[in-house]
Amino acid sequence: MAIQRIGAVIGIDPHQIEEYKRLHATVWPDVLAANERANIRNYSIFLRQMPDGRPYLFSYFEYVGKDLDADMEMLAQDQRVQQWWSICKPIQRPLADRNEGEWWASMESVFYAP
C-alpha cells in the first residue's frame, strides 16, 4: 500500500491558541473515527510562532487510501466533522496565497527518510 504524506500550514488567532490546544487535547471520538474511515493515519498538528511574529499551525498526516479526493469529500460531508470544523475554523487564519479551494495551505514534500 502506497502512503501519501501530506503537510499543510495555516495561521491561528494568537488570542485563541490556548483554546485550540484545549480542543485538540480532547478531540471528539467521532471526528477521530471519521479520519480513520477516510484513511488518514498519524495526523499531527504543530504550533510555531514565526519571525514575522505570527503563530502558525503545521499539520502532517499519512493517507493510506486509494482515492484522496473521494475520502476528503466523505470527510467533509460528515456531520460531526462539520460541527468540529465550525468550532475550529473561526480560530484559524488561512494564508492569503493558498490554492483556490484550500483552507489549510498545502506544503510541498521535499524529503522523507524511511
Automatic annotation (TrEMBL):
UniProt key word Isomerase: yes
EC number(s) stated in the UniProt entry for this protein: 5.1.3.32
Spans through the membrane: none
Broad EC category: isomerase
Database matches in InterPro entries: Dimeric_a/b-barrel, Rham/fucose_mutarotase
Coiled-coil ranges from the UniProt annotation: none
Gene Ontology terms, MF aspect: L-rhamnose mutarotase activity
Keyword line: Isomerase
Protein name: L-rhamnose mutarotase
Taxonomic source organism: Pararobbsia alpina
Chain's gene name: rhaM_2
